[in-house]
Amino acid sequence: MTPTRVLPDLQCSLVCDEIRQEINGNLILLGVITVIRVPQIPITLPQLFIFNRWTAGVGEFSESVRLLAPNGSVVRKSDVRFALRDPGHSATNVSFFGGLEIAVQGVYSIEVLVDDVMKLRYALPFMHVPPPPQGQQGQPQPPQHPPAA
């Protein structure tokens, strides 16, 4: 008996600055992000992409990607439907969050669900890193050497 529906596995989920497509159809992920450093808070980021790849499933599914603030509230959400006809096939979904307003510094979270089943939740820290004082931008910093013994 052939199964008509098997929940897929999430092969990977990556946060990126940008995703482009080559002429042959392959995707190029630019700026894979683990921490977002910003010069001020609050800030509006022009764009953020989440790349998800699903495999080993059969059927039609609904993916939900959520960006949660440190307090657990939903900052942004993306929903997409996709299908896998055979367990050997895969599906790639890209969520685009444009004009993303970040109000507070802290550890945000990305949640990835399929048909309301949580597949992955991971941290995405937003850190305030002030710019260097005026006149010191681009100045090389002297190397830090340990004291002589």
Key traits:
Immunoglobulin-like; 149 residues; 9 strands; mainly beta; four-stranded antiparallel β-sheet
Description:
- This protein has 149 residues and is mainly beta.
- Strand 8 and strand 9 (117-128) form a beta hairpin.
- The radius of gyration is 20 Å and the shape is elongated.
- It is built from no helices and nine strands.
- The mean pLDDT is 91.
- It has a single domain (9-128), classed as Macroglobulin (MG2) domain (Immunoglobulin-like), CATH 2.60.40.1930.
- The protein has a five-stranded mixed β-sheet, with no helix packed on it.
- 0% of the residues lie in helices and 61% in strands.
Average residue pLDDT: 91
Succession of helices and strands: EEEEEEEEE
Cα end-to-end separation: 74 Å
CATH class: Mainly Beta
Largest sheet: spatial strand order: 3-9-8-5-6
What integer value in Å does the Rg equal?
20 Å
- Structural class by sheet pairing and helices: mainly beta
Give me the CATH superfamily.
Macroglobulin (MG2) domain
* Secondary structure tally, helices: 0
Poorly predicted ranges: none
Taken together, the total number of domains comes to: 1
CATH topology: Immunoglobulin-like
Summarize the main sheet.
5 strands, mixed
Query: Strand-residue fraction?
Result: over 45%
The level of helicity is: under 10%
User: How many β-strand stretches?
Assistant: 9
CATH architecture: Sandwich
Envelope shape: elongated
